[in-house]
């Protein structure tokens, strides 16, 4: 069961129990939100791996209550939904949120990329990786593909005057055969699928590099510590 589905089920059950109790006791809405938050937080202590999920459970009922009580035009909620879809559309398709590579990660990545290589950034976000390589490693032909429209548009404007290849589309539909290095900062969910795709399409000797997320049952050839506050790593596989 995915973390997102656990979140939905936990919240639904907690809200149902809280609504029943509040209905019987005729308590105000703030008691309903507090009871829901307590129940869902307690369930999250057992169900969820990441500690931050617990605090999402704790805050979410109060956010719902605030939204219900606020005199906000419903069209603002629609606008927020559309913007969220334009930024995080990849979550719905491949369960890949928007992650941006920091400077430490890019410096480590550059050390792994051979001179004159052709690099593909899968799920390229706003073009951060490509912009960095254009500036500091012009010997590398850097291409990127991004599915979500708003980050892609930002990257298009950002890279308009460069020779980087900037594409809109599904990262898992891209052909990896032409690239010496494929870089991915995705999520744990699609890594097995990415590994299968890389083994089928990438040439022998080429490199698959993942920021932070490993591949089940496929130990990397080497691991490079990025040295940031998140304890991030680059995991490198040689095809």
TrEMBL record:
One of its GO terms (molecular function) is protein-lysine N-methyltransferase activity. GO terms for biological process: methylation. It comes from the Bacteria. InterPro entries: FAM173A/B, SAM-dependent_MTases_sf. Keywords: Membrane, Methyltransferase, S-adenosyl-L-methionine, Transferase, Transmembrane, Transmembrane helix. The chain crosses the membrane at residues 12-32, 52-69, 76-92. This is Methyltransferase domain. It comes from Iodobacter fluviatilis. The lineage of its organism: Bacteria, Pseudomonadati, Pseudomonadota, Betaproteobacteria, Neisseriales.
């Amino acid at each position: 069961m995915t973390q997102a589905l656990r979140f939905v089920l936990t919240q639904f059950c907690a809200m149902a129990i809280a609504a029943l109790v509040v209905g019987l006791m005729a308590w105000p809405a703030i008691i309903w939100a507090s009871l829901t938050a307590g129940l869902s937080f307690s369930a999250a202590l057992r169900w969820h791996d990441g500690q931050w999920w617990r605090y999402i459970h704790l805050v979410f009922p109060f956010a719902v209550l605030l939204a219900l009580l606020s005199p906000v035009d419903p069209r603002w909620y629609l606008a927020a939904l559309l913007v969220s879809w334009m930024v995080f559309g990849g979550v719905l398709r491949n369960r890949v949120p928007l992650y941006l590579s920091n400077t430490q990660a890019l410096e480590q990545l550059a050390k792994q990329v051979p001179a004159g290589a052709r690099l593909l950034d899968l799920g390229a976000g706003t073009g951060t990786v490509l912009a960095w390589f254009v500036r500091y490693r012009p010997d590398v032909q850097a291409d990127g593909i991004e599915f979500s429209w708003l980050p892609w548009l930002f990257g298009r404007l950002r890279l308009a005057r460069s020779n980087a290849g900037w594409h809109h589309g599904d990262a898992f539909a891209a052909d990896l055969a032409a690239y010496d290095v494929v870089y991915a900062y995705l999520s744990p969910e699609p890594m097995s699928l990415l590994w299968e795709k890389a083994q089928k399409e990438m040439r022998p000797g080429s490199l698959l590099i993942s920021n932070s997320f490993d591949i089940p049952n496929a130990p990397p050839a080497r691991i490079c510590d990025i040295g940031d506050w998140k304890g991030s790593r680059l995991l490198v596989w040689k095809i």
